[in-house]
Write a structure and sequence with these properties.
Blueprint lengths: L9 H26 L3 H16 L5 H84 L3 H48 L5 H15 L2 H29 L6 H26 L7 H15 L21 H29 L4 H20 L10 H6 L2 E2 L2 E2 L1 H18 L1 H11 L1 H6 L4 H26 L12 H11 L11 H21 L3 H26 L1
Antiparallel strand pairs: 1-2
Helix pairs in contact: 1-3, 2-3, 3-4, 4-5, 6-17, 6-18, 7-12, 7-15, 7-16, 7-17, 8-9, 8-10, 8-15, 9-10, 9-15, 12-13, 13-15, 16-17, 16-18
Length: 550
Amino acid sequence: MATENKILTAEQELKLRQPIDEYVGGIQAKIDALRVDGTDRVIDIQSMLDNLKRDRIYTAQEKEARAAQLKKELEAAKAVENQNKAEISKLIADAESYLKAHYDAEYYQPLLASCRNEKVAAQEKYQAAVAELNKEHQATLSKLTDQHEIKDEKYVHKNRLFDAKMTLAKDLQQVKDRQHAAFDYKYHLIDMLRMSKFTFGETMAQKWENYKYTFNKRDFFLKNGLYLAIIVIFIALCIITPIVKNTQLLTMNNVLNILQQASPRMFLALGVAGLILLAGTDLSIGRMVGMGMTAATIIMHQGINTGSVFGHIFDFTGLPVVARILLALVVCIVLCTIFTTIAGFFTAKFKMHPFISTMANMLVIFGLVTYSTKGVSFGAIDPSIPSMIIPRIGKFPTIILWAVAAIIIVWFIWNKTTFGKNLYAVGGNPEAASVSGISVFLVTVGAFVMAGILYGFGSWLECIRMVGSGSAAYGQGWEMDAIAACVVGGISFTGGIGKISGVVVGVFIFTALTYSLTILGIDTNLQFVFSGIIILVAVTLDCLKYVQKK
């Protein structure tokens, strides 16, 4: 038995655990013997049946005959399993009762006490080593007069202190490993008894222990530091807003407004996320929104358009409202997809950086839309359209459901399709992906096409949300919000790293921050400053993670 001031040796630890191993091991041997012709045989036969289905050596008749024989054996094995089930359950309960009564008290708690003493001993050893090094350093310095020799001695002393610190870290890690292994051993025994069937509480206990074991402060703050800072900012805004503006920030109405504003932007962020996953970007998003908004407003306009396109005034009032809505959606998607495909082609074919190809797109789109429409706003769309496409159910804006649908679809594409897996592969290492038989060209163009479709949907929804007001200038700067949301959400500019959940969080963070600052009365220009700082910090943390990984 360990005392409070005793450090257990490996032999003493094994001696403490020996009664547990003997008792539970004896029960485990009995259970294994009972499972040989029952549970173990059932698992073996089921595996053979699965292999038989995939086996191409046998003919269909031979497979049927073999399957029939195995099924008979399976029934016999299941009968044995049922026969021994009660006895096995009784033995498992006996072993678990013993573990509950003896494992913590007679083994785990004494080991924890030993680990605590080991940590104290390691710290004392480190302090003694540092004191000795400092003493030697001072003694050596007192004998030196040459500045170069003094500088060399200080450098050597610094390295020795670092080595002592590394030795301490190694000793503490060994203690941590020992404690973790002792915790795990109990669940190893339970795992053997129950054949990996843990209760919910046991599963959570193991996950929590594993989290504590692998927890690293530096990694934690690199991954979550920005989120923690933004949470602190939101808490501060929630406190300041009632004082300054005499209004509450966290109300249901404000939350729904934030979600409503975020919904069209979600499409844009999901689109550019795929490009960032390929270590690219898209600077033309805002102009795509302006182009889509203009086209959608012209088609869904209330009455004859007051503005013209290349001198021609369009009139779609002869079409049914539903037809105009669908036509507007198709036109938005087609226009955006044409331009993103062009950018994708130049990026994939000529290895042009997306920064250049999308910047060219941005200039071309803005120039064309501004020149063709003279830069005018086309007014409002038919007022009945918003209530048809994004009606409010009570206070709930159903535009949110469009965003949810987009999130689900893009998540499925990223995680459950070959294209999605290829997207990660090409983003992580295009050369290796190419050698593996993946068409880097098709994946790159495909990502741009998917982005165009999402931009088209987003601009169409934004037009309906704003009841028109499409113009070439609409959407200016939105590309920065979309890109920033992705980066804040963990989509790495280094490529091949990111999750859809991160994009969603990033969009909500930026929309909520903008909304909160607007309620507080912060000037729009100053809001750009906040966004810029967040982007800079997010990319810095991303780069630090990449450097650490390398």
